Amino acid sequence: MSRIDYRTRDYEGFRAEMIRRLKEKMPEYTDFSSSDAGIVILELLAEGLDVLSYYNEVVANEVFLETAYERENVIKIAQMLGKQVEEATPAKFFQVFEITPQDKDVVIPKGFQLSTKESSPEKKIFFELERDLTIPAGKTGLEKDSNGDYLYKVPVVEGKTISPEVVGTSNESPNQSFRLAYRPVLKDSVRIFVHDGVEFEEWKRVENFIDSTSTSKHFMVRLDESAQATVIFGNGTFGRIPNRVVGGIVANYRIGGGEVGNVTANSITEIVAKPAYMKRTFNPDLAYEPGRNRESTERIRIDAPNTFRTVWGALTLKDFSDVVKLRFPEVVFAVAERDADEIDDIHIYMLLEDNAPLTEEFKERVHSIFDENKEGRKIIGVRTIHLEPATLVPVNFTGTLRVKEGFYAEDVEQEVRTFFNEYFAIGKYPFNKELAISELVSEIVSEIDGIRSLRITSPTEEIIEPALNEILILGSLNLTVTGGI
Mutual orientation of helices 37-61 and 11-25 as an angle, nearest 10°? Predict the structure, then answer.
């Protein structure tokens, strides 16, 4: 009895295996050319098996975190490991309006729309007031207090409100799903109203239907790779099924979010529907709450196992730094070490986005995570956790750049300077990463056209080894440029 090769997964493998079995079962069959009718049938079967094999592999891959392709499946696996996926958040600014003084109070309503000034509507970034702004009678809106702060400023948030949107009509079947029309959707903003036959009632968004009953007015929201949202209802046992009412499912939600909203000061200046009394508007400062991009699928793959490893507490030094990075998105890099003298003390060094300072408020939030009496995330024996900023160590470079004939020396020099600035940009170069000068030079020469040679004369060390709490940054770059045009 011949064995079946269960490793066969493609067309050629299936075809060869079936021909081998055909020779065993029917030795008198001698025409194995593709023009033979029997071989045609065999090849069609091999093609069908190849397709089925492909889909089996796709389904199997979606079960594992490392091989799953669909973002929804990656998120589901990550959530089973205790990882809460970060979705995009919108940027928030304080906005000032200048008006012609009026005889009575002027109220600029919540949701009032503004935008940046761009050449086309597609490139505009829209913002909305988060609350009503009242400018008293006789005031211009530009008045300031003794500290120089504007008295009549209002928070604005990036994005647009979609309200109301008729999502659809329930057919009273289990597990119904409806796709929202616009994207990218801010998941936390989604509100669903369902008509019960008498009136509309708001239902509650949940992450899953585990705790839902047959009467629970719950729904879920799933976002795909492009942040298109799908609203999902229960099956009648876990989560109530909406009643059949034409147009009885309505949504309010916001679209936007991400770093695209982190515009510069004095750039939110356009008024979508400008009242006659309004002269101008502007954002005097940068965002007080910067927008963040949604967590990438690759980032989720990395963070989910670390989340599971630290869910019960921080046991190793790496756990301490991982807990901080996982719980606080503003932390770019973190590393931990024990105190050289006090072995029961641990130092956690951090670099925040834009090299922001470690405020006392932020430190309190971090300490609360490790508080033994709250979440039990600090291993027994650890007495004190010290939170400290990264030490930025500037590296000053001096070198000679020779440019090839036919290349503009000024352009090549600028590309080299840009490379150095980006390579050592704060937030890209991590803690305790040694710098090999020869490898850096090799990478520059291979990346930039027009370089005949690049020789670094200072620093003189071939390898620079920063301490654990240190991050290398670019100090100065002095280049002597020869050759080229």
Answer: 130
Tell me whether strands 345-352 and 384-389 are parallel, antiparallel or unpaired: parallel
Could you tell me where the beta strands, DSSP code E, fall in 206-258? 218-223, 229-233, 249-255
For domain 312-389, give the fold.
GMP Synthetase; Chain A, domain 3 (3.30.300)
> Could you tell me if 100 and 277 are in contact, meaning their C-beta atoms sit under 8 angstroms apart?
yes
For the chain, the domains span: 11-61, 92-159+259-282, 165-252, 312-389, 391-483
| pLDDT digit string, tens, across residues 62-89 | 888 888 888 888 888 888 887 878 889 9
Amino acid 376: pLDDT? 45
CA dihedral 156, 162, 164, 166 (to 10 degrees): -160
Q: How far apart are CA 73 and CA 300, in angstroms?
A: 11
Instruction: Give yes or no for a contact between 68 and 62, defined as CB atoms under 8 angstroms apart.
Output: yes
Distances in whole angstroms, Cα of residue 305 to Cα of each of 35, 331, 337: 54, 18, 22
Do you find a cis peptide bond into 155, omega within 30 degrees of 0? no
DSSP state of 270: E
Tokens 């597609």 correspond to what residue? 122
Is 66 in contact with 301 (CB distance < 8 Å)?
Answer: yes
Residue 1's pLDDT is 47
Cβ burial 367-387 (10 Å sphere, 16+ → b, else e)? eebbeeeeeebbeeebeebeb
